[in-house]
């Protein structure tokens, strides 16, 4: 029976070890934990089988806390900071750090209640859970100005990345110019046309980058308006003869575009042009489309990040103009194409 107990404890250590290997990404942390487990196993081998209490005490000290007892979990009030935030225990005043990733995953807002469980997801990996309870308004909020879904631009005159527009409920709106923190630019590997979440304190123009959105992340749906809002003047008017030849003999490549593609095809063809289109994620098909097009349109809201990057790389390699389309409307599509026509003509003149 004593040998069985020893075997069970050894197995417990091995199970904990395997769990940490599977769930730990940081190599340095994993190396320290490996030494930790090996030390525990060696100490058990030195113990006599009859020392049941000694074995239990040693394993209790050596194993990560979450393997032998449930950590205390407390309720905290969330306080939003420029980056991430903190949980404040209203009774003890104790505070815990809340990472930005947790804020996103749990959809935390200032005043929300949350449970913090130390080592709840493993050794030194804490668990956070938002509670569906009334917000605590007793904790003062920090004055912060923030913009989600902000579009990154680059100002050549000051050699800085900036944001001047963001999507508000799906609609593109202007915001006061925000300089992006240069350390954050490096950390998030920021490039022009990236979409980010930014925040800054009042009277400061430099913003911290809270989050960099992947192109696959869903944007908020625009608020539905009356039909008259969407009606465009050109729909009730026939195109004049000059307009009908604006895109004559021009081949427009469109990557993605989803439900808007039929609108774009109609606008190009009624002006004398031709559309090549693909929804494929296959690199060969994307590159083939770019090669046979005079100009490439990449609707950033409806195309995956990988597909957009493939199209941009191929267009740059073949020195073909491309458009990052930020608005899905017909007028925006047509106007962007018109503004880039001179780039196509330059190529023709060079041939």
UniProtKB/TrEMBL annotation:
InterPro entries: UCP020408. It holds the Pfam family DUF2325. Belongs to the UPF0751 family. This is DUF2325 domain-containing protein. It comes from Staphylococcus americanisciuri. The lineage of its organism: Bacteria, Bacillati, Bacillota, Bacilli, Bacillales.
């Amino acid at each position: 029976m004593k040998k069985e107990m020893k075997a069970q404890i050894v197995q417990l250590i091995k199970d904990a070890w395997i769990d940490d290997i599977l769930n730990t990404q940081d190599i340095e942390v994993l190396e320290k934990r490996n030494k930790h487990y090996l030390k525990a196993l060696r100490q058990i081998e030195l113990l006599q089988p009859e020392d049941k209490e000694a074995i239990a005490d040693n394993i209790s000290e050596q194993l990560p806390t979450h393997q032998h007892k449930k950590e205390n979990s407390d309720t905290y009030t969330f306080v939003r900071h420029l980056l991430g935030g903190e949980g404040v225990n209203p009774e003890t005043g104790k505070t815990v750090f809340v990472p930005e990733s947790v804020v996103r995953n749990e959809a935390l807002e200032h005043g929300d209640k949350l449970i913090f469980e130390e080592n709840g997801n493993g050794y030194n990996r804490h668990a956070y859970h938002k509670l569906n309870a009334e917000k605590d308004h007793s904790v003062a909020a920090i004055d912060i100005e923030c913009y989600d879904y902000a579009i990154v631009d680059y100002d050549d005159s000051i050699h800085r990345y900036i944001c001047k527009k963001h999507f508000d409920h799906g609609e593109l709106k202007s915001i006061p110019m925000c300089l992006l923190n240069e350390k954050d630019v490096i950390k998030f590997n920021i490039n022009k046309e990236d979409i980010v979440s930014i925040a800054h304190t009042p009277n400061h123009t430099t913003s911290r980058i809270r989050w960099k959105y992947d192109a696959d992340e869903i944007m908020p749906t625009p608020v539905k308006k009356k039909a008259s809002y969407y009606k465009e003047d050109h729909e009730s008017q026939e195109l004049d003869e000059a307009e009908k030849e604006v895109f004559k003999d021009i081949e427009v490549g469109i990557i993605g575009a989803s439900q808007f593609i039929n609108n774009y095809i109609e606008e190009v063809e009624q002006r004398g042009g031709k559309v090549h289109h693909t929804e494929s994620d296959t690199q060969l098909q994307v590159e083939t489309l770019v090669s046979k097009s005079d100009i490439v349109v990449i609707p950033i809201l409806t195309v995956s990040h990988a597909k957009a990057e493939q199209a941009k790389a191929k267009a740059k390699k073949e020195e073909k103009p491309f458009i990052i389309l930020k608005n899905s409307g017909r007028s925006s599509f047509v106007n962007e194409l018109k503004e880039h026509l001179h780039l196509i003509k330059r190529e023709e003149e060079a041939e």
